[in-house]
Amino acid sequence: MVQEAVVAVIRRKMASPSGTVRKLPARFIFACFVLGLAAWQAFAAVLPQDRSDAMYHSYQGGGMSIDGPSILLRKKIGNHVSVSANYYVDTISGASIDVLATASPYAEERTENSVGVDFLHNKTLMSLNYTTSSENDFEAKSIHFGVSQDFFGDLTTLTLGYSKGNDEVGKTGDDSFLELAERQNYQLGITQVITKNMIIGLSVENISDQGYLNNPYRSVRFLDATSARGYRFETEVYPNTRRSNAAAITANYYLPYRASVYGEAKMFSDSWGIEANTVKLGYIHTFGEDWIVELRARHYQQDKADFYQDLYTRSAEFNFRARDKEMSTFNNLSLGVSLTYEFQFSAANFFKKSTINLDFDHVNYDYDDFRDVLAIDVPVGAEPLYAFSANITRLYVSLFY
Amino acid sequence: MKAIKANPLRSLLLIMAFMTSMLTSGCSSTFEPWVKPYERDNLADPIMSMNRNPVSMSYTHHANQAREGARGAEGGAGGGCGCN
């Protein structure tokens, strides 16, 4: 009933002339991380392997620098229970084009902690995770429950997941500003063994949001002949509901010489009018027993939210308005490589093996209707389209025991 | 603009009912798999898992979704062969 009510609200909003919606990406950093961690441990009715990972991550691009550590610990207790804990930090500095256009460069930090427990009973694996994320102007809590079951001679694995998250959104410099939002995720995954060399997977996810979905710092621009630049900025206004559906199909194929290829295709659409497609291809090659090399390419394309506009003709032109480049029409192409060196310990050692890993991706973002307002001596609305590139690096050590 | 017709909660309940019936019927114990357990060495190799490095994978999803409008369905393939 609640779901139907949300749909009814969305439909009413979409029926209005300005009708549309959408949120900002920063808050989904949290949700995505929770789901990512939850997903990997839910896709098989066996307890996850005991391991510890220590990672340094770095994102450099678009004027932003984001880096920090991530530590994961996982250990079985007996034959039926596995517990895990993850500590993650984002240290953010620099200034994206959004910040340069309307505000000053800044620095901040986000800390995320999560704990989880997995319980295995026959061919059923149940997982429970609790995660918190904290920034100076943003607090989030999320809980995830998943159940995974093997069928048909263990050739098929079915996974169900449910998550619920709550956000508290603040605003630096305005102590009285406090808004709330909540989110629910429904997940379904199926993996199927096709042959002794091939697995395919299908996953679908429905996410619904309600509450304050704006970024309190982002602005839209509108024409104003009285301004020196010919335009001014004002606060964005998003609808307070959003509902999205995503479906992905994956395939992994084992080649005759201990190598594999994989592919992924994903479709996405939401009640804000965003439609997106993702295609990913990868090749994994081994050299002897110790080295694993992976090459990959990923292409992402999306159409803008219905209420997105680079330039409005006047202030408060529509009820809902946004100029987040993440909501515009754009595409990106990512090329990446991973190197893994693996070494085994002696059989008597508590540690079984260890790996040292380096992952690197270079991404080019090209926007179709988001203009670079930092360009000078250009008529309003005729600025060059924005584009930027980023380098994403992960360096980590994994210990298996 | 597309109307969303599917009710995910109802779908999940149906699937859970299906899972329960499978569990209670003992179907999985009588099924003859076309890929035998002893033929799953290749499937169990870490290079066949999209999730072989979970910390890095989670971070990559996080980095992408922070800059893209799409979200969800990040599970990827893995497992399903009862081999670990």
Could you please describe the fold and organization of this structure?
The complex is a heterodimer of chains A (401) and B (84). By secondary structure, chain A is mostly beta strands. Chain A has helices spanning 2-15, 26-40, 97-102, and strands at 51-61, 64-77, 81-94, 106-121, 124-135, 138-151, 156-169, 179-195, 198-211, 219-223, 231-235, 241-255, 259-270, 275-287, 291-303, 330-344, 353-371, 385-400. Chain A has one domain (2-400): Porin (Beta Barrel), CATH 2.40.160. Chain A contains three helices and 18 strands. In chain A, the strands form two sheets. Chain A has a 16-stranded antiparallel beta barrel. The longest helix of chain A has 15 residues, at 26-40. Residues 1-26 and 32-44 of chain A have low confidence and may be disordered. Chain B has 84 residues and is an all-alpha fold. In chain B, 48% of the residues are buried. At the A-B interface, α1, α2, β1, β6 and β7 of A face α1 and α4 of B.
Indicate the topology.
The complex is a heterodimer of chains A (401) and B (84).
Chain A lengths: L1 H14 L10 H15 L10 E11 L2 E14 L3 E14 L2 H6 L3 E16 L2 E12 L2 E14 L4 E14 L9 E17 L2 E14 L7 E5 L7 E5 L5 E15 L3 E12 L4 E13 L3 E13 L26 E15 L8 E19 L13 E16 L1
Antiparallel strand pairs in A: 1-2, 1-18, 2-3, 3-4, 4-5, 5-6, 6-7, 7-8, 8-9, 9-12, 10-11, 12-13, 13-14, 14-15, 15-16, 16-17, 17-18
Chain B lengths: L7 H18 L1 H4 L10 H4 L9 H12 L19
